[in-house]
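tl;dr need the bound structure. longer version: we got a ligand (flavin-adenine dinucleotide) that a collaborator sent over and nobodys looked at where it sits. i said id run it. heres the input, straight from their email, havent touched it
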Amino acid sequence: MGTTVFERQRPASSVVQHSLAATRHSVFWRDDLPESLTPDRPALAGTVRADLVVVGGGYTGLWSALLATERDPAAKVVIVEAQRVGWAASGRNGGFCEASLTHGSENGQTRWPDEMPTLERLGLENLDAIEAAEARYGMDFQFERTGMLAPAVEPHQVEWLKDWAAEGEEGVVYLDRDEVQAAVASPTYLAGVWEQRTCGMLHPGRMAAELARVCEERGVEIFERSHVTGLDSAGTGVIVSTAGGRVEASRAVLATNAFPSLLKRNRLMTVPVYDYVLMTEPLTADQLASVGWSGRQGIGDLANQFHYYRLTADNRILFGGYDAIYHYGRSVRPEYENRPETWEKLASHFFTTFPQLDGLSFTHKWAGAIDTSTQFTAFFGTARERRVAYAAGFTGLGVASTRFAGEVMLDLLDGVQNERTELEMVRKRPLPFPPEPAAAIGINATRWSLDRADHNRGKRNLLLKTLDALGLGFDS
Ligand SMILES: Cc1cc2nc3c(=O)[nH]c(=O)nc-3n(C[C@H](O)[C@H](O)[C@H](O)COP(=O)(O)OP(=O)(O)OC[C@H]3O[C@@H](n4cnc5c(N)ncnc54)[C@H](O)[C@@H]3O)c2cc1C
């Protein structure tokens, strides 16, 4: 088997050890929120009546609630959140806000080739709507429409980039070695593609907190520390219950992401996969100058096991990805968020990428669960005679598409037929993952194969080719 650049150009272990010596296990985006954006909200108690109850206070739930108030300003909307607003994936992610509704255009092309022009247009409209909502509601989630840079870090990836650029998509610019180095200086970069229109960077914690603030200003009631354990039909409506109370509502949106679904039919549809992140201290002006990066693009390299990295408003670098860890039994547990071998691997890959930043320290490390589905992007549906709508399975790309999912769920509850609800992507459910032990065996065999492909000039083995042919797979 070959090696990757991260093995060929490993930094000294003292550089890695030093960088992690004082790193706090804590989510930077949460620590960075002003107190005014993290009010303590009450738990659900007694009986509350509503037109719409939303279970889950991440982006999917928050956008659904906000959009519901836009559609009907008089509607009474309630959000019931098990812990705190935005504490899970929505407050922990990389903040890459991408237009793609299909986890990248390649995935979309293979699954819904006929729909791709519509999906791409709807995705761009959705991204524009997020940017516009920030201004319209006076939110500040530090949105920067920087685009995204995909550098080739292995020779075979240069050909992939050339093929991509040759497709002639608007806003896609090929950068040769000198040009990519002028954009962002890394000895690992051999070429790059800069997708200029389809991605923005934002502060994930602020987006969740600001959405919650605006929802409340528009009359939405939010309950925190209220774990929903029951979802029952009652008359023409539904009842959502917690240990301390219940919401009786006409309709419900389920926005519970990687956590166990309240609907049995969705229990096998996703698996939680852990993704890990490091955050550096702020770079000095000299350190930043040594990297360049004046375009402040989000960066994602091209391997199956990829890294994503970006600058924050105060010029830290967030560096995440690569390892995507599944734990037997689909479990989501706090102890899975600590993985020293992954922090060390990420730190090592960071200094391979930016050796000029030798001496820099990481201030924060954290992890979060993503909800992987076999089609790598959300699936949708209704239950209980169309009184309940759900969306899940965003895999690692839900910062923008959760807003689209909110629109779709409200459309489905309203029974509207439109461009969104007529999409095959919306109408057809993907295949589930198998139950254990097959899920763990299959996922780990796929991960092993993806790692081998990254070490073997991207060549996919028989298992991966079979999965490709079946439209199945595993991604983060
Ligand atoms: C480390 C990491 C990096 C990522 N990076 C990116 C990125 O850069 N770009 C991108 O597009 N995507 C990224 N993602 C994915 C993205 O964050 C998610 O797709 C998105 O946040 C999903 O939002 P959500 O509201 O569906 O889920 P969540 O934010 O997980 O919210 C679900 C909420 O439901 C609540 N809940 C669950 N069950 C119940 C219950 N029974 N009762 C009450 N409440 C319940 C939970 O407490 C939780 O708050 C990343 C994810 C992770 C973990």
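gonna send this back to them w/ a short note. The longest strand covers residues 362-373.
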